[in-house]
Amino acid sequence: MTAMLEVTDLQVAYGKIEAVKKITFSVDEGQVVTLIGTNGAGKTTTLRTISGLLRPTGGSIRFQGKPIQTTPAHEIVSLGIAHSPEGRRIFPRLTVEENLLLGSFSRKDTANIKGDLQAAYDLFPILRERAKQPAGTFSGGEQQMLAMGRAMMCRPKLLMLDEPSMGLSPLMMKRIMSTVRTLREQGTTILLVEQNAQAALRLADKGYVLEVGSIVLQGTGQELLASDDVRKAYLGED
Amino acid sequence: MLFLQQLINGLTSGSLYALIAVGYTVVYGIVQLINFAHGEVFMIGAFGSLAVWTIFFQGQTSILILIPMLLGAVAASVGVAVLMERFAYRPLRHAPRLAPLITAIGVSVSLQEIVRLFYPGAKSPLPYPQIDYVSGTALQLGDITLRRSAIFTVGALVVSAVFLWWFINRTKLGRGMQAVSQDPDTARLMGINVDRVIVVAFALGALLAGIAGVAQGLQTNSISQIMGFTAGLKAFTAAVLGGIGNVAGAVVGGLVLGVAESLATQFIPGAFGGTPWKDVWAFVLLIVVLVFRPQGLLGARVVDRA
Question: What is the pTM of this model?
Answer without folding.
Answer: 0.92
